[in-house]
Amino acid sequence: xxxxxxxxxxxxxxxPSAWRPFYEASRxxxxxxxxxTLYVTGHSGETAEGVFPDDVEAQVRxxxxxxxxxxxxxxxxxxxxxxxxxxxxxxxxRSPCCSxxxxxx
Length: 105
What we know:
Strand content: 5-15%
CATH architecture: 2-Layer Sandwich
Oligomer: single chain
Radius of gyration: 15 Å
Strand order of the largest sheet: 1-2-3
Number of helices: 3
Shape: globular
Order of helices and strands: EHEEHH
Largest sheet: 3 strands, antiparallel
Helix content: 25-40%
Distance between the termini: 33 Å
């Protein structure tokens, strides 16, 4: 595994409280900082109680809310995000909902 820019291999993991049960089961943190770069793992739209809403727009909004919580845990916000890859099934049919949800985050 490559190290930090200063040559060390030190990493800092971020595990928001809502992510803790998943982390305990998988050992996958919500994000890892290596040097000055924060890598955020895949997030989904469940509520803090671990419930996935039936409504697609609520799931998309929840995903962006959960990413924002992880960013905050790492001491950054959306203004620091350089790139985002989003995988959403059925996007053509749900395009207006996905666009509204992403713009409001």
